[in-house]
Specification:
alpha/beta, ABC transporter transmembrane region fold, Rossmann fold, 6-stranded mixed sheet, elongated, binds adenosine-5'-triphosphate, ATP hydrolysis activity
Length: 614
């Protein structure tokens, strides 16, 4: 059974009962724990090491050889001390000399290991830095349709967990693998050279040890991964519960949430107990196998000493070599597991890096000059998914400086139109031009830098009010920031706050009212001074006074620039120069408020419905 199915099969019965809950907190594709070894991918992963390996690898290899030679010489010197210095010659001088040499060898071994770790850490950290930067740079360029299909958490996991899981491989894994291989080969040669019978006898236990080490570790690793998955569900639930605490309390769902949490919590504990029990089995099993090896060694060794084939010193040296032999075998098993995890992580990372942004600059694209603001949709058809048109042949003409209100039922295509102006998606058919230039022929940077977007969910970052307004143009002076705030009538409420412009606002501006947040985002947009403004108006109802304030601010904001407003408030719609009524991806009515009211069509129906609702 693959690890993935194993995990999927371990869904908790309590959770299953609650429809959809078991799926609620996990990103399916992030469940993959390991992948078969893929040589091509392995090479690609290690190409990240190439720029640094040239300078540092020779040094690392030198330290590795030095460390291995010194390590393998010590047992030989021990046998010399027993056989020659003690048994044969009884020479204290020789014993001192050998002891001094062993100490010196240990010192060299320690220094070689310290430098080797230092150099490998340098390579490891540089590789991880490059990989993380590549990934981050790339995901920033990916188009909207990529994010449409992916939950933000899944992207986050790539940049954090998956990159971190490679860290160990690059810093220790690879070099340890080389050292272990060199050491193993060295020990096998020495054992067979010293006494092939004893050597072969000891090696009988090797396959058993290797099997235990690899298989058991794999089972333990999966068990811990199950623990991690369960814990990440707990964390996601915790996160959702905190974020949605107001809704939970408003609907008195605290107990229900507690029940969910309890099932998850119990389940996490159960999986932890299981993983921990397996972990505890590992040490004794390895020790028992090692013990069997030692038994064979001493049993056969005693026989060979009696028959005069080997000396006591040689048997002691042999036992030392065998002691050094289990460590690399054990680590190779560990390394194998680490490699499989790294394969899964690197596959997910490369899947992202290979994803091409669907909206890019065309070869030879030129920057668009300062935008005047004449925007034209010419028979625009757009499909998010093939065969399902969200816009069906839109023809629309916006004059420079005009404000256009987009109205229509939910799902009629309003947000789609505003996404297309900034070229967040490429249209399926037709053409969108700005000042007569097809927006696909100009650079994205030059286009988007002249378009300002104010979204419904105004994003307030943690920081001061001043920082939040300045986000519109980072090089704006304090005076410019305040002028923008004054222009949209936000200055008064800001100065009434305890720290004025320096008041720290919590993340997402939770201490600010909806209207205040909106005014701040207007000030931010005004400071950016875009040539085209796109505004997704907030739907929440606010008091009449704030509404008036927002309308006044909006007038300032819209002055001298073309704008598209997804309008929900009657006051905004009424003031727009042009109103476009959308229905199922088509423009059904166009004109100003009075013309459309007279027409007695969809628009007048929508407005009347709004009044009825009020
Ligand atoms: N990312 C997407 N992937 C697939 N289909 C989408 C996507 N975004 C919107 N759609 C579909 O396109 C159509 C138009 O959606 P759009 O968001 O433009 O509507 P809207 O008029 O802005 O609605 P609302 O007023 O509810 O925001 C809808 O049928 C919607 O389901």
């Amino acid at each position: 059974m693959s690890t993935q199915t194993e995990l999927a099969g371990k869904q908790e019965p309590g959770l299953k009962k609650k429809q959809g809950l078991s799926d609620r907190f996990v990103y399916k594709d992030d469940d993959a724990i390991d992948k078969a070894f893929d040589w091509r991918q392995f090479r690609r992963l290690f190409s990240y090491m190439r720029p640094y390996a040239k300078q540092l690898l020779p040094l690392i290899i030198l330290m590795m050889i030095l460390g291995t030679i010194t390590k393998l010489t010590v047992p030989y010197l021990t046998s010399l001390a027993i056989d020659k210095a003690i048994v044969k010659e009884g020479s204290l001088k020789l014993l001192y000399l050998i002891t001094a040499s062993v100490i010196l060898l240990y010192l060299i071994q320690w220094a070689a290991s310290a430098y080797r770790i230092k150099f490998t850490n340098i390579i490891g950290q540089k590789v991880i830095y490059d990989l993380r930067s590549d990934l981050f740079r790339h995901i920033q360029k990916l188009s909207f349709n990529f994010y449409d299909k992916r939950p933000a958490g899944s992207v986050l996991v790539r940049v954090t967990n998956d990159v971190n899981s490679l860290q160990d491989l690059f810093t220790n894994g690879v070099v340890n693998l080389m050292i272990d291989c060199v050491q193993l080969v060295g020990i096998v040669i020495i054992l067979l050279m010293v006494n092939w019978k004893l050597g072969l006898a000891v090696m009988i236990t090797v396959p058993i040890m290797f099997f235990i080490s690899t298989k058991l570790r794999q089972t333990i690793r999966i068990a811990w991964q199950v623990v991690r998955t369960k814990n990440s569900r707990i964390n996601s639930h915790l996160n959702e519960s905190i974020q949605g605490i107001r809704v939970t309390q408003a609907y008195t769902q605290e107990q229900e949430n507690m029940n969910y949490f309890d099932v998850m919590n119990k389940d996490s504990k159960k999986s932890w107990d299981k993983a921990s029990a397996m972990n505890q089995m590992f040490g004794p099993l390895i020790e028992i196998t090692g013990g069997i090896g030692s038994f064979i060694l001493f049993w056969l060794g005693a026989y060979l000493i009696q028959s005069g084939e080997i000396t006591i010193g040689l048997l002691v040296a042999f036992s030392n070599y065998v002691g050094n032999f289990w460590d690399p075998i054990n680590r190779l098993g560990q390394m194998y597991n680490q490699l499989l995890v790294a394969m899964a992580s690197s596959e997910r990372i490369f899947e992202f890096i290979d994803e091409q942004p669907s909206v890019t600059d065309k070869p030879g694209a030129k920057p668009i000059p300062t935008i005047n603001g004449n925007i034209q949709f010419d028979h625009v058809v757009f499909e998010y998914e093939k065969g399902r048109a969200a816009l069906k042949g839109i023809n629309l003409q916006v004059q420079a400086g005009q404000s256009v209100a987009l109205v229509g039922h939910t799902g009629s295509g309003k947000s789609t139109i505003i996404n297309l102006v900034s070229r967040f998606y490429d249209i399926t058919q037709g053409r969108i031009t700005i000042d007569g230039v097809d927006i696909r022929d100009v650079t994205l940077q030059s286009l988007r830098s002249q378009i300002g977007i104010v979204l419904q969910d105004t994003f307030i970052f943690s920081g001061t009010i001043r920082d939040n307004i300045r986000f519109g143009r980072l090089d704006a002076t304090d005076e410019e920031v305040e002028a923008a705030a004054k222009a949209v009538d936000a200055h008064d409420f800001i100065t009434q706050m305890p720290g004025g412009y320096e008041t720290e606002v919590e993340e997402r501006g939770s201490a600010l009212s909806m209207g205040q947040r909106q005014l701040l985002s207007f000030a931010r947009a005004l400071l950016a001074n875009p040539r085209i403004l796109i505004l997704d108006e907030a739907t929440a109802s606010i008091d009449t006074e704030t509404e008036l304030k927002i309308q006044e601010a909006l007038k300032v904001l819209l002055q001298g620039r073309s704008s598209f407003i997804v309008a929900h408030r009657l006051s905004t719609i009424r003031h727009a120069d042009h109103i476009v009524v959308l229905d199922h991806g088509e423009i059904k009515e166009e004109g100003n408020h009075d013309q459309l009211m007279k027409h007695q069509g969809i628009y007048s129906g929508l407005i009347e419905a709004q009044f009825r609702f009020l």
